[in-house]
Design brief:
73% helix, 2 domains, single chain, globular, mainly alpha, 323 residues
Length: 323
């Protein structure tokens, strides 16, 4: 009987590594939330079905990699979580719209005013300069490559376990921030405290800024000069994913003694500052990310280790020796 149960369930999911299990759990969680609480629209059924298909695809990939000796498939298995983030991020737009009608910008603005007695983005606008804007907009976009620097450095040194742990922690941080978007949807100060359509005039750069800004806008669903851009934009303000993932990346760079750590650290601080200067975030969003950062480090290590011991029981002695 036990062998039969294992063959149907527990034993089979041992082929999943910690990253696979994390992504599956998040996809299933979103599917359940939408199925139970979303408005009665076609999305209520479409999103859960898509997520279930995604879970099946990940399981089949993990199973194939276990049986295959192909280096190409192993590399696909190692890296697939990062491009998949783009799809999941876009899914969050539909999930938030299906689940929530309220925007929480008013509360985030009140927190900023309580802490500073004013609106930080409005105060920073007094010191805006095209050169500074050009630098900060460029650094802001570099965020999309930040986590990859750690992964590439670890893979090049054949540190596969460390690579898997880094991937797990980064994806975990992204998923926690995505849940924040569902709980506290907001659009940010560029829409609430400023005129979004005047951004290029009020915060001009030198050369790259308008192109990079358009790249960010399109990534968030804003196309062209749509008269109601606020309706198209992602509700992705609280907590600041840029801040949270940047902090995690800097932590990992020092944990694994990456050669880039002394570049990533100061660059990361500039990136975090840019999120407010460029009007993408309230300071309250950064504070929220700061509170979540240590919680993700602690719980992430526990979850990663727990899954490793579950999927590879023989690694228990090695883990105990490390501790």
């Amino acid at each position: 009987m036990r062998r039969w149960v294992d063959s149907l369930g527990i034993q089979n999911i041992r082929v999943l590594n910690a990253v696979d299990a994390l992504i599956l759990c998040f996809l299933l969680l979103v599917a359940i939330l939408v199925l139970l609480f979303a408005k009665a629209t076609p999305l209520r059924w479409v999103l859960p079905c898509l997520n279930l298909l995604g879970c099946l695809a990940i399981y089949l990939l993990a199973t194939h990699v276990v049986r295959s000796e192909s280096l190409v498939w192993r590399q696909i298995h190692a890296w697939y979580g990062f491009p998949l983030l783009v799809i999941i991020y876009k899914e969050m737009y539909w999930a938030v719209h299906a689940l929530r009608d309220t925007l929480y910008d008013t509360y985030l603005i009140q927190i900023d005013r309580f802490l500073f007695g004013t609106d930080p983005t409005i105060e920073l606008a007094k010191f805006a300069h095209p050169v500074l804007t050009e630098i900060l907009q460029t650094v802001y976009v570099m965020f999309y490559f930040f986590p990859l620097t750690i992964g590439i450095a670890l893979i090049r040194k054949n540190r596969y376990r460390e690579f898997q742990y880094a991937s797990f922690l980064i994806l975990y941080g992204f998923f926690v921030s995505y849940l924040g978007y569902i709980l506290f949807p907001a659009v940010g100060p560029r829409f609430t405290l400023h005129d979004f359509y005047a951004t290029d005039r009020e915060l001009p750069g030198i050369w790259l800024t308008p192109y990079l800004r358009e790249f960010v806008n399109r990534g968030e669903g804003i196309t062209g000069t749509h008269p109601n851009a606020v309706d198209l934009v992602q509700r992705d303000v609280f907590p600041s994913g840029h801040t949270l993932i940047t902090l995690i990346t800097i932590y990992l760079s020092f944990l694994f003694k990456s050669r880039t750590r002394f570049i990533l650290a100061p660059l990361g601080m500039v990136l975090i500052f840019s999120t407010v200067y460029l009007r993408y975030h309230y300071v309250a969003d950064l504070i929220g990310a700061g509170f979540l950062f240590p919680l993700i480090l602690g719980s992430g290590k526990y979850l990663f280790t727990t899954w490793e011991l579950f999927s590879h029981p023989s690694s228990r002695n090695l883990s105990e020796q490390r501790n």
